[in-house]
Amino acid sequence: MTKGNLHSSLNFPIGAGAGGSFAAYELRKLAAETNTPVEITVYERESHVGGRSTTVNAFDDPAYPIELGASIFVQVNYNLVNASRDLGLNVYSADHARPKESDDSIGIWDGSQFVFSLSNGYSWWNIGRLFWRYGMAPLRTKKLVKGTVGRFLRLYQKPFFPFSSLSDAAAAANLLDSTASSGEQFLHANDVDSLFAREIIQASTRVNYGQNLQLIHGLESIVCMATDGAVSIEGGNWRIFDGALKASAADIRLNTTVTGIVRNEDGSASLSSKSNTATEQTHETFDEVVIAGPLQYSDISIQPSLEHTPDIIPYVNLHVTLFASPHRISPKYFGQDSNSQVPETILTTLPEGLDLGSNEAGVGPSGFWSISTLRTVDRSESEDTQQHYVYKIFSPEQPTAGFIAAILGLNDETVDKDGSIGDLSKSDVSWFHEKMWNPYPVLYPRVTFEETLLAPGIWYTGGIESFISTMETSALMGRNVATLMFQSWEKNGLKSDHGAGSRAKTEL
Ligand SMILES: Cc1cc2nc3c(=O)[nH]c(=O)nc-3n(C[C@H](O)[C@H](O)[C@H](O)COP(=O)(O)OP(=O)(O)OC[C@H]3O[C@@H](n4cnc5c(N)ncnc54)[C@H](O)[C@@H]3O)c2cc1C
């Protein structure tokens, strides 16, 4: 097929996560507004849409969807909020299913004691107890969050949006002072007291990014405190990306891995892909390519080399353990008397005086980043009749059977303590699902970010992860590259009107 239309273009995002689906969604919108014919093909090596927004079903029952990956977004995440509304999805408060059986919903554990606990799930600010312990620090932090989020939101609008250089856009929005320093330095420079920083803000950077304040940069530390209006999508956050892709009318090729890209002299790109069930490669040519996810994990060979090759950077190793049990978390494990209830969400921090510097393996004495009680499940229709609790653990290592037994207060001497959760009796752990993720980069302070255009016709969304790593920012970057791409066609169109010719010619 030969396409000679001025703006007609074939485009393929690699990856059906937030970045790829929003690139397709935006491109379709821009094309529709201008009556431009565009064909969009999306390649996804997994069997499902969503990327790191992945939902699994507790007890394999669709009535109990649980986020294995990205779990919440917030009210200032306008791309996700607006798309949820436009796609007709139901949005829930992030903790809507959480059992409210204990007085304190959040406790912050330092490995030997709860240094602070509070009863309000996702908003840090309206709690008297917070001010009593930390003085002005919460107010100062709130102000800092407001100012930083306000500067970040400038990237959503002209003249900042679309941005061909994230580094330049971040500089123009006055955000580099926050990315250039560690969270600890940035908070100190803004007069936020170190007790509040360690006990509250660091608990948040640890649960959200598996990193301490001495390591993670200031901007991402502040993002962790912007939790107002935390929500998730009924049935799973992946539905936003599924809806966006469907609305883009893309040809979605699941179970298909892109293995190579050859950049042709005419600016088009030939890609090789392989269905997960076939042995033979397929080859197709496209006008534009969007690599929508971290290039370093995509296993794509690119010839000739890119003009801008993204650096390989360290990503966090995060073990997510979902499991169900008829037992509540044991107060004994947390040094409390047997009648008390431990908080439904246990966040962690480092004990006072423990300096792990900018150590990437900085979990410290707690050994885990967080333990959350997500919901209850009524199993009365199955063989047993109990109510079961569904828990989520974030940890840098796979939790052992001994650890799970200890937090559930089990005294089974026959259990191999170094074994895995599957070694525990089904009457104690009735369902589980484990996954090791590389969920986000180690967010070292930095002032430059990867390019959006890696070579002519090869776009990249993954550079935004070192700046802010969330579903929203990947969605923003997807929209950004789609808009830049569209503008480049318009520019070429103008050139074409003056005799330079169209670049949207593709042989398939
Ligand atoms: C446990 C966990 C908790 C998190 N919590 C939150 C949270 O609460 N809120 C939040 O906003 N964010 C959270 N995040 C981060 C968030 O999930 C990511 O920032 C975001 O989803 C990234 O989207 P993306 O599209 O850039 O990348 P991805 O979601 O990784 O999508 C890339 C896609 O590309 C596909 N792909 C890669 N290579 C190829 C290839 N060669 N061929 C075909 N397909 C390919 C992959 O299979 C993948 O589906 C969390 C992440 C994890 C893992």
From TrEMBL:
<dbReference type="GO" id="GO:0030328">
    <property type="term" value="P:prenylcysteine catabolic process"/>
</dbReference>
<comment type="similarity">
    <text>Belongs to the prenylcysteine oxidase family.</text>
</comment>
<keyword id="KW-0274">FAD</keyword>
<dbReference type="InterPro" id="IPR017046">
    <property type="entry name" value="Prenylcysteine_Oxase1"/>
</dbReference>
<dbReference type="InterPro" id="IPR036188">
    <property type="entry name" value="FAD/NAD-bd_sf"/>
</dbReference>
<keyword id="KW-0285">Flavoprotein</keyword>
<keyword id="KW-0325">Glycoprotein</keyword>
<dbReference type="Pfam" id="PF07156">
    <property type="entry name" value="Prenylcys_lyase"/>
</dbReference>
<dbReference type="InterPro" id="IPR010795">
    <property type="entry name" value="Prenylcys_lyase"/>
</dbReference>
<keyword id="KW-0732">Signal</keyword>
<keyword id="KW-0560">Oxidoreductase</keyword>
<dbReference type="GO" id="GO:0001735">
    <property type="term" value="F:prenylcysteine oxidase activity"/>
</dbReference>
<dbReference type="Pfam" id="PF13450">
    <property type="entry name" value="NAD_binding_8"/>
</dbReference>
<feature type="domain" description="Prenylcysteine lyase">
    <location>
        <begin position="121"/>
        <end position="497"/>
    </location>
</feature>
<protein>
    <recommendedName>
        <fullName>Prenylcysteine lyase domain-containing protein</fullName>
    </recommendedName>
</protein>
<dbReference type="GO" id="GO:0030327">
    <property type="term" value="P:prenylated protein catabolic process"/>
</dbReference>
